[in-house]
Structures are given as C-alpha cells and as structure tokens.
Amino acid sequence: MRRRSHRSQPAGRRSRTVVATTAAVLVGAVGMSGCDAIGGNEPGPSNASQRGEQKRQKPAWDRSPQSLAAVGDSITRAFDACSVLSDCPEASWATGSDADVRSLAVRLLGPAKAAERSWNYAKTGARMVDLPEQMHQAAAHRPELVTVLAGANDACRSSVGSMTPVADFRADFAQALRGLRRQSPKSQVFVASVPDLKRLWSTGRSNPMGKQVWKLGICPSMLKDSDAVDAKAVARRAAVQQRVVEYNRVLKEVCAKDLRCRYDDGAVFSYRFGDEQLSEWDWFHPSKDGQSELAELAYRAVTAR
C-alpha cells in the first residue's frame, strides 16, 4: 500500500530520500538476520526451504554401534539353517553366536559383548504388518543399531493376488520407523533389501529333493509347479518378482526420509545365492554359509564411510 502512495505523489527529493533510507534499513536488517542465523560472515540460506534442509542434515553415521537389535522374518531367525523346519537363532546373520557364521553382532561387538548387547525379535512367518510390534520390542533396549530384513513373506503368499499391496507395505514400514523414533530417537537403522525370490527358484529347482519340499507350501506364489514354464507360470513368477522390486523401492524411499536409516542399495537382492548358500532341508532359506554371506553384506554396509 505504501509503495502505491509514493507513486501517486510527485517524485521530489524528499520522497527519493525516504525510499532510499527505507531500502537501506531493510537491506541492513536482512543482512543482520542472515549473520545471526548462520554465524560469522557466511551467507545465510536464501529461503525457508534451504533453512529446513540445513536443520535436517543427517547426523554422522556411527560405524561401530555398541548394541544391536534385529527384526524381521525367518531369514533372521535362521530357519532351516541347522535342522529341518526349525529356527536356529544361533546361526542368525544379525545376532547369532555361531563361529562359522560370524554374525553382524559378533563382527561389530565381539562374541562376549554380542551375547549381552544383541537381541533378536524376528519371527518366522512375519510380514511387514508385524514389524511395528517387533520394532516396539526392540526399541525397549534403546539399541544403537536396529537391523531390518523383512518382505519376503509379503510376496510369498498362496497366490499373486494375495501378496501384500505396495501401499500397505509402505504404510506398515513407515509406522514401524515412527514407532522406533518415539521410543528410541537416536537408534540407527540398517535395512536389507528383500532377496531375489526368482533367483532362489532358479537355483533350487535343480535339486529334486528341494522341489519335493517346496510342495509342502514354501512360497507357493513363486515356487509351486516349479518345473512349469508355460506362459501362465512365467507371468506368475514375473509378477512376484516385480512386487519384490516394488517392495525394495519402498524400503529405499522410506529409509531415505529417516535421518538415521541406511539402506543396503539392493545388496541382498543382487546377491547370487548358490547351492552352498541354500538350506539343505528346503533349498530356499539361507544355510549357515548363506547366513554368513548376509552378515558380510550387512557389515560392509554398516561400516561403510
């Protein structure tokens, strides 16, 4: 309004003086506020968005956390790694004590401290919808690091139509992270990608015994009729594969919004599990050797600069 009134008056020396003085005051005020916000003589952020980004700068990642909690599914429980149709948590890639596996906890903390400062809340058969409760249990310990490996069971359903919708998967994962932040704000999170289920099918189907075990109902959306290569079977496996890719995209995107979260950039999905890395009882879950490989992938990601 004031600028319009100036334009309606004759452009005299006094009006020019007022305008120049006002501009000088405004410039000085902006310059002072910029110095106060940043400190020293550094230029201040040019807009509110940049100031917001400065406030959200990620804290330094701790490459040597001193406590660890694991959440997830049967892979983190080392299902079928030691004996048929049973969990073997001592062989878990995340928290296990087995010397042949050398779990992430052992690599980070050493055997003695790992036994005292690591906790495994993963559950065989768990899906992403179960992660918020697992995270709640893990957060009670205020761990310096939480590992997440979940999503395979969301794709391994009775049929393609029964797979967890991507939107639900995203909502459940985001809820789990929010819950952790409420209970343990400074806990770091390492998120492993969902394994390549189609790769596991391709590797395991060469074993006659494995194919018989699959008929018991292991990941039917991918593994049923394992020898079928007709158009319908190929399309079914492709749909499962695509859903896993979408799940991994969700894990990456949601993790990126959390300042203390690190995604493995698809390392587990890209790993080419061979016969030695698959359970001799179901040719699908990781063997002890496979668990050790998962531990190595996680250790590299957690300790990377």
List the helices and strands and how they pair.
Elements: H1 2-8, H2 13-38, H3 48-55, E1 68-72, H4 104-109, H5 111-117, E2 118-120, H6 131-139, E3 145-149, H7 152-155, H8 166-183, E4 188-191, H9 197-204, H10 208-214, H11 220-223, H12 231-256, E5 261-263, H13 267-270, H14 288-303
Helix pairs in contact: 6-8, 8-12
Straight-line N-to-C gap = 55 Å
Instruction: Sketch the major β-sheet.
Output: 5 strands, parallel
Task: Give the neighbour order of strands across the main sheet.
Answer: 2-1-3-4-5
Q: What is the residue-mean pLDDT, rounded to a whole number?
A: 86
Q: What portion of the residues fall into strands of 2 or more residues? A: 5-15%
H and E string: HHHEHHEHEHHEHHHHEHH
Radius of gyration: 27 Å
Please, how many helices?
14
Q: How do you describe this structure in short?
A:
This protein has 305 residues and is of the alpha/beta class. Helices cover 49% and strands 7% of the residues. The longest helix is centred in the first third of the chain and has 26 residues.
Structure overview:
49% of the residues lie in helices and 7% in strands. With 305 residues, it is an alpha/beta fold. The protein has a five-stranded parallel beta sheet, with helices on both faces.
Key phrases:
305 residues, alpha/beta, five-stranded parallel β-sheet, globular, disordered N terminus
